[in-house]
Amino acid sequence: MAKRSSNKVHHRQLVPGVTPNEWVPRANHGDHLAIAHESPPPAEAVPEAQRRAPMRGWAARRVLLLNASYEPLTTVPVRRALVLMLRNRAEMLHSDPAGTVVHSAGRQLYVPSVIRLTVYVHVPYIARVPLTRAALMQRDRFRCGYCGAKADTIDHVVPRSRGGEHVWENCVACCARCNHKKADRLLSELGWSLRTIPRPPAGRHWYLVSKIDTFDPVWGDYVPALESA
């Protein structure tokens, strides 16, 4: 994990219900960014986790945004992250593994992967985490709730056809074999049991996890719930 800055943390209170994204400034016509593809840093200078990250077009990537307290807030487009850095509202903690460089008004910046706000923002607590495939797979660590094999599907413990609900307490990650064999039957009819009792994940960072499908493995340093499939 990157060394934390010793800079004084400033505080900015937001009206309850206002998300961090509404404070983060958007790019405007005065923010001129030019892309330049330079040779990436030597392999030995890039952490192994970053070298494993999938390479996509730089503009399509997302950047992890941390609060000034290092709490994960959300992800933002690369351009938005660069504007934050150029306006000194955020600092880069990790650069993008592709080694892409942008130039603006005589400044040269690596495209970031993780940035940290220099001003603390108050974020209202979200009690219930949305049930998404991404979040459920992370909760169950990509392991089948019945046999423990690698999971690639979601199963309703009590099938929807038999009154089961689409809620955290009734959904588990499941391997294709168990999903096919279970079909629309109850566990009691099969003599099966769950490896763990499914529960809603707890913690503010899970709201962020529920919206992340792909990520740079280095994000796991700041969002412990993240795990590669």
UniProtKB/TrEMBL annotation:
Annotated spans, Disordered: 1-26
Feature: compositional bias, Basic residues: 1-13
PANTHER family, per the entry: OS07G0170200 PROTEIN, SLL1193 PROTEIN
Listed name of the protein: HNH endonuclease
Superkingdom of the organism of origin: Bacteria
Classification via InterPro entries: HNH, HNH_nuc, NA-targeting_endonuclease
Xref: Pfam families: HNH
Keyword line: Endonuclease, Hydrolase, Nuclease
GO molecular function per UniProt: endonuclease activity
Residue ranges annotated for the HNH nuclease domain, each copy included: 131-180
